[in-house]
């Protein structure tokens, strides 16, 4: 049987998840009902919690922008009634602020680092910054600063007829989520017991069931994108507030 390497209960609802492929670090944004946002960081290789429930001076109007080389980039908002991002703050693995710049706005992440622009300069001019210092390195080059590779795999939709050997009598709905990795097949599906809708996760090794978990209980509607695969780690969220990772 497979075992999870990370079982981390967070203090609020997991709002966003970001993975840094250079450091194999997962960053989490959580939000609570009393409008408090916090951030956590966990190393996937050794399951070490770098920091947990980090909060900034801005209680609510901030969030994860990107991550690069172990550094988490947070954004603010242009105002409290617009989704437009403005400003960047860099946090290291010890939850220390490396730098802040409130005129920067994030454009995209390249293989060489974050690409940003100065909101005070028009027309918009992109440039590469040093993620550790925030210093401008040079103007953005499309040939050199190619888009960062996304190593995350998402499940694909499959028909319920392909759930043989799973310990479920009837699948609710006409779609399940499925992904193959090496010898494993990962499946997520919904069941309905009375009026209670539940979401399940199964990992099959051939015909053998090697892992199972109940992802969500008593939910109101079917949940999409129930898991992701990053390198050889299966990553999923249980009951909206618990991060679980299973090495495959």
Task: Describe the overall structure.
The structure is a single chain. The chain contains no helices and 22 strands. It has 248 residues and is mostly beta strands. It has two domains: 11-139, Lipocalin (Beta Barrel), CATH 2.40.128; 152-230, no CATH class. The strands form five sheets. Strands 1-22-21-20-14 form a five-stranded antiparallel β-sheet, with no helix packed on it. A hairpin with a 4-residue loop joins strand 2 (13-20) and strand 3. The chain is elongated and about 60 Å long.
Question: Structural class, please?
Answer: mainly beta
What is the level 1 CATH name of the largest domain? Mainly Beta
Strand neighbour order, sheet with most strands: 1-22-21-20-14
Q: Helix-strand pattern, N to C?
A: EEEEEEEEEEEEEEEEEEEEEE
Unreliable residue runs: none
What is the residue-averaged pLDDT?
93
How many beta-strand runs? 22
Shape: elongated
> What's the number of structural domains?
2
Span between N and C termini? Answer: 11 Å
Q: Which radius of gyration do the C-alpha atoms yield? A: 20 Å
Q: Specify the CATH architecture of the largest domain.
A: Beta Barrel
The percentage of residues in β strands lies in over 45%
Task: Let me know the largest β-sheet.
Answer: 5 strands, antiparallel
- Report the helical percentage: under 10%
CATH topology name of the largest domain: Lipocalin
Individual helix count: 0
């Amino acid at each position: 049987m497979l075992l999870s390497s990370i079982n981390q209960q967070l203090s609020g609802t997991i709002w966003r998840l970001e993975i840094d492929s250079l450091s194999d670090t997962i960053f989490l944004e959580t939000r609570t009902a009393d409008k408090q946002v916090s951030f956590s960081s966990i190393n996937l290789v050794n399951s070490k919690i770098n920091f947990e429930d980090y909060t900034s001076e801005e209680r609510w109007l901030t969030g994860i922008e990107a991550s690069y080389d172990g550094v988490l980039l947070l954004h603010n908002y242009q105002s409290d009634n617009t989704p437009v991002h403005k400003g960047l703050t860099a946090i290291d693995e010890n939850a220390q602020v490396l730098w802040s710049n409130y005129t920067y706005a994030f454009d995209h992440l390249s293989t060489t680092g974050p690409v940003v622009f100065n909101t005070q300069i028009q027309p918009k001019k992109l440039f590469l910054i040093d993620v550790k210092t925030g210093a401008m390195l040079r103007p953005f080059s499309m040939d050199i600063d190619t888009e960062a590779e996304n190593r995350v795999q998402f499940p694909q939709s499959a028909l319920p007829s392909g759930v043989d050997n799973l310990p479920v009598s009837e699948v609710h709905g006409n779609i399940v989520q499925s992904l193959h990795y090496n010898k494993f097949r990962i499946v997520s599906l919904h069941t309905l017991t009375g009026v209670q809708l539940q979401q399940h996760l199964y990992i099959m090794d051939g015909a053998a069931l090697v892992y199972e978990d109940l992802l969500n209980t008593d939910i109101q509607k079917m949940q999409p994108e129930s898991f992701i695969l990053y390198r050889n780690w299966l990553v999923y969220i249980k009951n909206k507030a618990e991060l679980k990772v299973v090495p495959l």
